[in-house]
Amino acid sequence: MRTITIAFPSRGICDPAFATALRLLEIPTDQFSVIYVEGADVAYARNILAEKAKNVADYIFFIDDDVIPPINTITKLLKHDKDIVCGLYFSRPEPHFPQIFYKNKEDSERYDCVEDYKKDSLIEIDSCGAGCILIKAEVFKKLKLPYFQYIPKGENNPRKGEDFYFCEKVKESGYKIFCDTSIICKHIGKKLIGAEHWEYSVQMLKEMKEKMGEEKFNEWKKQFRDN
To answer: Above 70 in pLDDT, residue 227?
Structure first.
């Protein structure tokens, strides 16, 4: 029987919406546990959680405490039988970009948001936010610490979150990363950010591009991502 550890780095204040979503999650096995690290740097917290879980579970499901997954998220992700597969959520700041990415074709240090993702599909990606992601424990057994690490902006490189660091590390080790775009999570902020906000943002971006011109618009997007 498959064993699952649900792991989340906590800011120390649990939103009632997240607590409710966690309680309602459909877990297709009796062999599961829930662990968290409170108040620590998120990269440090993810490393601790992975270390705790990798020898006691077959799968580790990372869920951030500001992300609300659909009830059947774990069930759907397990059915894909992938080493690394995530659900989809959107950034809190406007424009509300999907948090899935491809490598930039011209600059290998940069990533482009997958704006035209195919809905209700399993797609291969290069990187993603780690707020809703299922990872086989064997992945961590083959990697070396740190699995997650924040990379500050340098003279020749953009800022990279701990999730981008992890994605680069697993890709270098030969793993593939997938996203199930039928799993649409809500992102807790001043409002719950969902797919409808991305649809609004698509129109917003189109209008911005028309007003700014393609060159200035692309430069703005690059700066937006780096910040």
So the answer is: no
Q: Which of 28, 26, 49, 35 is nearest to 6 (CA)?
A: 35
Share of the chain above pLDDT 70, in %: 98
90: its two tokens: 């959107």
- Strands 132-136, 67-68: pairing is unpaired
What's the CATH number where 96 sits? 3.90.550.40
Amino acid present at 50: A
Burial label, 220 (beta-carbon count in 10 A; 0-12, 13-18, 19+): middle
Structure letter (DSSP) for residue 57: -
The tens digit of pLDDT for each residue in 77-125 reads 999 999 999 999 999 888 899 999 999 988 888 899 999 999 999 999 9
Q: Which two tokens stand for residue 151?
A: 């990379």
What is the domain range of residue 134? 4-226
**pTM score > 0.85 for this model?**
yes
Predicted confidence at residue 80, as pLDDT, reads 98
Contact 72, 95 (CB under 8 A): no
Question: For the chain, what is the domain count?
Answer: 1
SS3 176: coil
Peptide bond into 146 cis (omega under 30): yes
For residue 226, give the nearest of 115, 120, 152, 125 by alpha carbon.
Answer: 152
